[in-house]
Specification:
Helix content is 61%, strand content 3%. The chain is built from 23 helices and 6 strands. The strands form 3 sheets. A two-stranded parallel ribbon has the order 1-2. A two-stranded antiparallel sheet has the order 3-4. Strands 5-6 form a two-stranded antiparallel sheet. α4 packs antiparallel against α5 and α4 runs antiparallel to α9. The N terminus and C terminus are likely disordered.
């Protein structure tokens, strides 16, 4: 009996020892695993003491590898006097004071970057407007000279008396083109042909033997001009000339002014202070650019993740000026269409100006061809003409100067306009292109693997948001805030201006019997007041922008999507703490030991 009892005790002790060894091994494995979570390798954290390549070890603790970098930025690396790490970057190289300084620098860099891209587009718009304006003005001067030459060679008797009306006619055309007149272009054309009628009738139509001896008496000329509308000596040609000029100059004027106004709006966008950036945007700009250095990681040893950069930049731009993206895209598209459909066509201003001399010649030929019938109508209305003594109106040397005009038209600025068309097409996605130009840099890791995620070195696993303001509601880094644009009326004013500008350009593409008055149209829009978001409700309903134009209308509130992290292939919601994992490990070991003790005791 005693032997049996002794054997049972011996077996129990052996069993207990084996279980104790197993529990100890389990405890060691769990502790090591918990420590690895607390101190991950260089694929997950910049603080690994084993990863000296990325600034770990003694180099990271001394911050020697990043001091030169921060000195180049004129930022002094100042760890907290109490040895605490900064609250934003969590790095031992920067205290809160240093992080605040870096946040200001990253915000200013963002502002300068946006201003750089805006100015580039502004310069293209302004230079294109100037190039086009100079070219058309040069064409009008050349056309004027060709017309004077035509009259001096073909209608030589008319040349002296027609010179002044021709000069005034072209001067008015240039004034209209440069928007320096408030008169009606249709009246200008009618006035020119009315003044030309007595000269053409006297020297090209009237068959009297004394037709070359002098000019008509002023009373007789007044009678001819007074009956011009009834006599219609030039047929329908004056109306054709007026219609072509009205349509072509109107479209060209709107085209140039739209470029100038667009540049002004972009300039106004630059004046929106970077203080309007949200706190989340500022923080992530700092994390993206400088927090790796605050953790002792030299810049040349790692690259920022492309996906992280894209989310940060799209989120920040949406918070800052993203509301301008869609209105600007519509303006750019309408300007491009205006150029192709109204400016650069066979009825565009270049072709109209080039054919003016031919049209004027056709008008005189029409009067000559209908000379006998026209003379009957004139004698019936004004009687027999009375002449003044002959006078020498223009010197022979002046005629020679006129006849030496160049026949070849000035070359069009095709290269400049092609460059403009390429850039205006690209600018339809202007704010999206800014993100691409910043994040498609060689200093960023395009495959989002083993790169700086803003908090650590690892793989960037967050969803990269698409373009557009609404998509940024779910941006994992810089989500769009409710009423993001309620802070500033400036953005709302710019949206209104872009909407009105698009209406103006679109209306200019519609043929009209009256010249399109850009200034009057803009003034009419201004009198209608703000509320631009409702002006193009159909265009912006996809973006849920409505209301009175205060920028507060963003549709229904969407539930926020929690951030998703991936650890070893498993998905967890929120951020998993290594210390929590360690406590779970200890709990499992304790439960195991208690179970073993209970088992041994029962045996």
């Amino acid at each position: 009996m005693k032997i049996t009892t002794g054997l049972q005790c011996h077996n129990s002790l052996v069993f207990m020892c084996k279980l104790f060894v197993c529990v100890c091994l389990l405890h060691c494995v769990l502790v090591v695993n918990a420590k690895s979570l607390d101190h991950p390798d260089h694929h997950h954290s910049p603080h690994s003491t084993k990863d000296t390549e990325y600034g770990g070890g003694s180099d990271a603790n001394s911050c020697d590898s990043v001091t030169h970098y921060f000195n180049a930025l004129n930022v002094t690396v100042r760890p907290d006097i109490n040895g605490k790490t900064g609250t934003l970057c969590g790095g031992h190289c920067c205290g809160n004071d240093s992080e605040e300084e870096l946040t200001i620098k990253s915000t200013n860099n963002f502002y300068r970057m946006l201003r750089h891209h805006t100015r580039s587009l502004r310069n293209i718009l302004e230079s294109t407007a100037k190039t086009f304006r100079d070219h058309v003005v040069e064409l009008t001067i050349q056309s004027e000279n060709k017309t004077l030459t035509l009259f001096s060679q073909v209608y030589r008797r008319m040349s002296p008396l027609s010179r002044q009306p021709i000069l005034e006619f072209y001067r008015e055309i240039r004034n209209f083109f440069n928007s320096r007149t408030e008169s009606n272009l249709d009246e200008v054309v009618t006035h020119f042909f009315r003044e030309l009628f007595p000269v053409a009738y006297h020297h090209a139509v009237h068959s009297g033997s004394d037709s070359a001896k002098g000019d008509f008496h002023v009373d007789y000329k007044n009678c001819l001009m007074h009956t011009f509308e009834d006599l219609q000596p030039f047929g329908s040609i004056p109306k054709v000339v007026a219609g072509n000029l009205i349509q072509s100059i109107g479209a060209a004027t709107v085209f140039m002014t739209a470029l100038d106004r667009g540049a002004d709006i972009l300039e106004s966008a630059e004046e929106i202070n970077s203080d309007y950036l949200t706190t989340k945007c500022r923080n992530h700009l700092t994390k993206m650019h400088y927090c790796a250095g605050c953790n002792g990681i030299s810049k040349h040893k790692t690259k920022t993740c492309y996906g992280y950069c894209t989310n940060v930049m799209r989120g920040c731009l949406a918070q800052y000026v993203g509301v301008l993206d869609n209105p600007w895209s519509n303006v750019a598209e309408s300007i491009e269409l205006l150029y192709h459909n109204s400016v650069k066509t066979d009825k565009g201003i270049e072709e109209v100006i080039k054919t003016l001399d031919v049209k004027l010649s056709e008008a005189i030929m029409h009067a000559m061809e209908n000379g006998p019938e026209l003379e009957k109508k004139v004698k019936k209305s004004c009687g027999i003409p009375s002449l003044l003594p002959s006078e020498k109106i223009i010197a022979d040397e002046d005629l020679e100067v006129i006849t030496t005009v160049q026949n070849k038209w000035v070359s069009p600025p095709n290269t400049e306009m092609l460059k403009f068309l390429v850039n205006i097409d690209k600018s339809k996605d202007f704010y999206a292109k800014i993100v691409d130009s910043v994040c498609e840099d060689e200093e960023l890791k395009q495959d989002d693997r083993h790169c700086w995620t803003g908090d650590r070195i690892g793989d960037y696993t967050q969803t990269v948001m698409a373009n557009g303001v609404d998509a940024q509601r779910y941006n994992p880094e810089v989500p769009l805030e409710q009423n993001a644009y309620a802070k500033t009326n400036k953005l709302n004013e710019l949206v209104d201006k872009l909407i009105k500008l698009r209406h103006t350009v679109t209306n200019a593409m519609t043929p009209s019997q009256q010249i399109y008055d850009f200034q009057s149209d803009m003034a009419r829009h201004d009198e209608e007041g703000s509320g631009g978001y409702r002006d193009e409700e159909d265009d912006y309903e996809d973006h849920n922008i409505g209301g009175s134009g205060d920028g507060s209308g963003y549709g229904t509130n969407e539930p926020s999507i929690p951030r998703v992290n991936t650890i070893d292939g498993e998905t967890t919601t929120g951020s998993s703490s290594a210390s929590t994992q360690y406590r779970i490990s200890i709990y499992l070991v304790t439960v195991s030991i208690a179970a073993v003790g209970t088992l041994v005791f029962t045996r």
